[in-house]
Amino acid sequence: MKHLLTSSRIKLRRTCPRADFYKYELGLVSTAPESGATAFGTAIHAGLESWWRSWQTVDGYGALEGALSALGSSEPLQADPYVYARATAMLLAYDARWSRWAAGVTVLGVEVPFATELRRPLTGQAARTWAVAGKIDLIVRLTDGRVALADHKTTSADARSGSDYSRRLTLDPQVSTYF
Q1: What are the pLDDT digits (tens) for 27-52?
Q2: Quick check: helix, strand or coil at residue 1?
Q3: What does the buried/exposed string (b/e) look like for 140-150 if buried means 16 or more CB atoms within 10 Å of the residue's CB?
Q4: In terms of CB atoms within 10 Å, which end of the chain has fewer, N or C?
Q5: Residues 6 or more apart from 130 whose CB is under 8 A from it?
Q6: Of 55, 64, 56, which Cα lies nearest the Cα of 93?
């Protein structure tokens, strides 16, 4: 059986090798509730998944309504009206910013899982014990025929061009791995 090398596992390994061992080798999972930031990101992600699925299946009809409805199933967001309002505002802004563009692209896939061989750089041989795996948030065909991948992120950090967060994303191997 091959071990799956995912972006989540790589990040955990960098943060804490022992936590990686406990989670992925021993199968021990924390029973601690997820952090507020993680719950918020998960809820936004669910909303965006619903939004893009509407563009994939019915040309965007009901995309915003579906995205906002997806927020309604998040208990952590329901517990705090301010956090729920912030998430709602983010999805409203996303819809206002991206709906015209989305109407011009073809959605090829939403939340697309993949697994592939991990190859040794020098020999090209497939690794016997490791494979690369993940889930791509969005795959679209652009108006000029090119295919593009998207990975949605939320952050409370400064995300402007040139910020520390922006520079970290430039070096993040997640989208490169998906490509």
Answers
A1: 998 777 777 888 899 999 999 999 99
A2: coil
A3: beeeeeeeebe
A4: N
A5: 2, 3, 4, 5, 118
A6: 64
